[in-house]
Design brief:
Nitrilase/N-carbamoyl-D-aminoacid amidohydrolase, alpha/beta, seven-stranded mixed beta sheet, single chain, C-N_Hydrolase, globular
């Protein structure tokens, strides 16, 4: 990577409160723009919380007008944001765990989680993945939580030329050490930066560890949050040199 500014949006999701979570996401967009962020990645199912019981009722088609205010804001601020939402795709009535790409150019991209955790199949269908992104001339591959537990997923991203592997996740304290070791290993093995955006608080009965992080292409930790809470974890690459910072997001509802 030459020059790029990215951020993990470590956000707290209010269970099932789409309008409230949209308001919280708006504040993250604004904070990211203040930091010069070009790519902002939110946790898994960030707009609803990790709430299986209500996912089917809350699921939308990606083009649903409810997301238009966020799409408009992303374009206005010049930030590409990846937000988590249960979605129904055109080919099926099944509910999938979506990561919707709200482009800085007004575009809309769809990634759906390919690999489900045990128990998720009771609510969700396996997703279809999605295309890589081009952010500032850099290739970005997306992942949602359990996707990264499959080594083939990261290997495919590397084969596609990804310089950044960006995952929206829900990781508890119990799983944190093992899961971050996997992500750090991918960075080192495939010579690609890795971003992990974790939830900032309790969701779906799971207490998230927070501690979102970003690793460089050699596996070195650039920056990580110290714990939970509403935070931006920002990393900036200039001529191959990474610098990171953690920025509290104030003014969330």
């Amino acid at each position: 990577m030459s020059t790029l500014t990215i951020a993990a949006a470590q956000s707290i999701s209010i269970a099932g409160d789409l309008s409230g979570n949209i308001a919280r996401h708006r504040r993250f967009f604004e904070a990211a723009a203040e930091q010069g962020v070009e790519l902002l990645v939110f946790p898994e199912l960030s707009l609803t919380g990790y709430e299986g019981e209500t996912a089917a009722a809350l699921a939308i088609e990606p083009q649903d007008a409810v997301l238009q205010p966020l799409r408009d804001l992303a374009r206005k601020l010049g930030v590409t944001a990846v937000v988590g939402m249960p979605v129904r795709l055109e080919d099926s009535d099944s509910v999938r765990i979506g990561a919707l790409v709200l482009g800085a150019d007004g575009s809309l991209g769809v990634y759906s989680k390919q690999h489900l955790h045990a128990g998720e199949e009771l609510v969700f269908a396996p997703g279809l993945g999605g295309p890589t992104l081009n952010i500032g001339g850099e290739v970005v591959a997306l992942a949602v939580c359990a996707d990264f537990s499959h080594a083939s997923h990261a290997a495919t991203a590397a084969d596609q030329g990804a310089g950044l592997y960006a995952a929206g996740v829900l990781i508890s304290e119990k799983g944190y050490a093992a899961d971050t070791a996997i992500l750090q290993g991918y960075a080192r093995q495939h010579a690609m930066a890795v971003l992990m955006a974790n939830h900032g608080g309790l969701t779906g009965g799971w207490q998230s560890a927070g501690r979102s992080g970003i690793w460089s292409e050699d596996g070195s930790l650039i920056v990580a949050a110290a714990g939970a809470g509403d935070l931006l974890v920002v990393a900036q690459c200039n001529d191959g040199v990474w610098q990171g910072r953690v920025v509290p997001v104030v003014g969330t509802p």
